[in-house]
Amino acid sequence: MSGILDLLNSDLGKTIISGVSGSTGTDQNKTSSVLTMALPVLMKAMQRNAAASPQGAEGLMNALNNKHDGSILDNLGGLFGGGVDENVKNDGDKILGHVLGQKRQGVEQVLGQKSGLDAGSVGNILKVAAPILMGVLGKQTRQNNVSSSNGIGDLLGGLLGGNSAKQEQSFLESILDADGDGSIVDDVAGMVLGGSKSKGGLGGLLGGLFGGK
Q: I want to staple 113 with a disulfide (CB 3.0 to 4.6 A). Which of 99, 124, 155, 182 is the partner?
């Protein structure tokens, strides 16, 4: 299974990045940076929520089986072409509130500091991206015949690169637990940069981003 960052490097990913950039009026490179950091963080948060309670996993499964079944990906041209519908943004707002809860503000601040955008711009990007990410997960759920709450945790883990990349996983945990001052993320970024010799996978991508290369 290819990971979520492979998706961002694909043609579909480029369409998503340019569409989100255009619809939020944000620089395309900065939009790409935000999405590269934010999508794994959102998925890690979903994984944590699903693991924390049967209700969390069940709620996610229901959303992926119904509203977020992947159909949003079938007409991205329409989605971005006429300007993103307010309903999509409102949906994204609800998804972010549900997935990140009280951590939302801190996550948006940290992502803003690292991408050179204010937290409001990051929030706008995430509101448009969240329903698309749910669509990607809905499509993967169908393609992989995931039907149980355990299966959804495994699917998210697979898209995040499994459990082999422990540094990246703890990095994502740290962003989720940051209080918004950015210092913890600097520490963790240093750890990922210092410890990750490979250029592949999440570590290489995040390392490159945080190294400012």
A: 182
